[in-house]
């Protein structure tokens, strides 16, 4: 069954793009619960301060909804109750724009995508057959997680129609939300949970539209010769000898359905543990020898591995360019930054579109 959601498309001229976008809304939602009797829809509304109230409606048939968004005007979006599963391998496009650890900083996401022509002045896909990659950690520390997710949901559909792709990979903060671990949750969402007496994790459960969509996403993919994940593949994971499709399918089963065998649970414990692609920091804090990285790249038929998760002052490469570290602090004086890949060239790009060649520390 296809139904419609109204989400918001950004309106921002070049002058606005050089400053913080103006906030126009204090509504968070919708959060759509799907059950046997229909749909339950929640909106959270604020008076502009720290007091929130919930509006709840029930629908037997698919409703028409409008998404609360700080910057956008209404645009209609069609979607299905059933979530399409995405592949684990893709051929290389001409260009890739990659962002890591945006953590609910929707303002920075919009500015980076507009300045680098991924979206147009109305927030619609403008990247043709090229790819946008979100390398995990969309959630937690920022105040605008919900509108960020809805925009990505819409861009994913628009990109596919144009022959391009939006890749939303999962990070440790998505796993934390799924597990009900809210130690880094932004004060806005803590206030919503308190005032509206709702457990934040339920908004991304298996019974919600956004929850199903996020839980369907991959942990690791390849695009051309690039091996992409939030925290990187370690020797421990490579030694499991799981093809990417099998690895992603097992993690998806854990998030979507459960019911693992004892053997599957043992493997999942490795993947979700400190040596897995969500949490490990060894590529920054205790780098192994190049022969270890070469073995990993060879197994996954890749030439380079790109990771976020662990902060670095500037994006850079190691191991003769075979490892690319991209998790920078988007709140620092340099502002939000992304990685632009054109062929074999890599650039750090900022919110004005300015480019800087990614350097090597080798």
Your description of this structure?
It is a single chain. The chain is of the alpha/beta class. The protein has a single domain, classed as Purple Acid Phosphatase, chain A, domain 2, CATH 3.60.21.10. The protein is 27% helix and 27% strand. The chain contains eleven helices and 19 strands. It has helices at residues 14-17, 106-115, 145-162, 172-178, 187-196, 209-215, 235-238, 244-256, 262-271, 282-285, 290-299; strands spanning 2-10, 27-35, 38-46, 52-59, 65-66, 72-80, 89-90, 95-99, 131-135, 165-169, 220-223, 226-229, 304-307, 316-318, 323-325, 338-342, 345-349, 355-357, 359-360. The chain has a seven-stranded mixed beta sheet. A six-stranded mixed beta sheet has the order 10-9-8-16-17-18. The termini are far apart. Mean pLDDT is 89; it is low at 1-19.
Question: Mind sketching the topology for me?
Answer:
Layout (H helix, E strand, L loop, with lengths): L1 E9 L3 H4 L9 E9 L2 E9 L5 E8 L5 E2 L5 E9 L8 E2 L4 E5 L6 H10 L15 E5 L9 H18 L2 E5 L2 H7 L8 H10 L12 H7 L4 E4 L2 E4 L5 H4 L5 H13 L5 H10 L10 H4 L4 H10 L4 E4 L8 E3 L4 E3 L12 E5 L2 E5 L5 E3 L1 E2 L2
Outline:
The chain is of the alpha/beta class and 362 residues long.
